[in-house]
Amino acid sequence: MNARISVPVATENMLAEIDGAIGWITFNKPSRRNAVSLDMWQSIPSILDRFEQDPAVRVIVLKGAGDQAFVSGADISQFEKARSSEAGNAHYDQVSGLASERLIACGKPTIAMIRGWCIGGGLAIAVGCDLRIATDTARFGIPAARLGLGYGASGVKKLMDLVGPAFTKEIFFTARHFSATEAEAMGLVNRIVADTALEDLTRHYCATIGENAPMTMHALKRTVDELVRGEKADMAACERLVKACFDSQDYIEGRRAFMEKRRPLFRGI
Question: pLDDT digit string (tens) for 176-234?
């Protein structure tokens, strides 16, 4: 039985925990439906650094505390102080942007486990993950048009790469809440399940992914990231990642395990 290991975090509004091969990141502000504040954004890169440095962590799961929300958006109660000036806006955008970039750049597979509200900044966080598994009662949306907010091109592109231009426009133009069924139909989430099955399915995915070769998954993740860049894709970098897989001890182990009809034991080397 694996022991859960708590990882120190600079703010009580975020929790980090290692449970076997899973690194759990919890947005821990249930009284505000886990609305993400500046201190929470600031903690994301350091937590990801810790998980990436631990070879035992194979998958990273992001979730919200309680049963009401994944993340219900940015903590707007902070905006009057933190985003009421040009300098404040620039600082907030820099901190949240760095967190989003760090999540996207994470070399290990990431899963957003979504229960309840996944709105605004919460949706941006979920989109920054590799996979999204949600309950059938989850709700999604971006209310920027109701707040008068401008939305950065990098965030728009990440969403558009996932659901396409037409759905991206619908999400922003209407600023409405979309059901889990609608989200699945547009490709915003990978799977929807009953609330009671959410953690079990997520853990099943983590177990399946955790048994596979880390270098193969890293190479695939980076190759997909490059390919969506179109003509700017660094194909040489993709080729280097593929070569590294073929040169690895894991490739030897994979071949031997196949021939010996046993489960491979990959080490990421």
Answer: 999 999 999 999 999 999 999 999 999 999 999 999 999 999 999 999 999 998 899 99
**All residues at 6 or more sequence positions from 41 whose CB lies less than 8 Å from its CB, including other chains:** 95, 96, 98, 99
One domain for residues 160 and 243: no
Do 118 and 219 have their domain in common?
Answer: no
d(CA 114, CA 60): 14
* Sheet of 191-193, strand order: 4-7, 14-19, 22-27, 59-64, 110-114, 131-135, 191-193
Residue 85 DSSP one-character state: S
Distance CA 222, CA 237 (A): 9
Looking at the structure, tell me whether residues 64 and 175 fall in a common domain: yes
Q: Which helix (H) or strand (E) holds 71?
A: strand 69-71
Contact 97/77 with Cβ under 8 angstroms?
no
Distance CA 146, CA 15 (A): 31
DSSP state of 129: S
| Listed residue (134, 115, 148, 130) closest to 58, CA to CA | 130
How many domains does the chain contain in total?
2
Band the pLDDT of 154: cuts 50, 70, 90: confident
Q: Is 178 helix (H, G, I), strand (E, B) or coil?
A: strand
Spatial strand order in the sheet of 139-141: 69-71, 117-119, 139-141, 178-179
Residues 244 and 116 grouped into a single domain: no
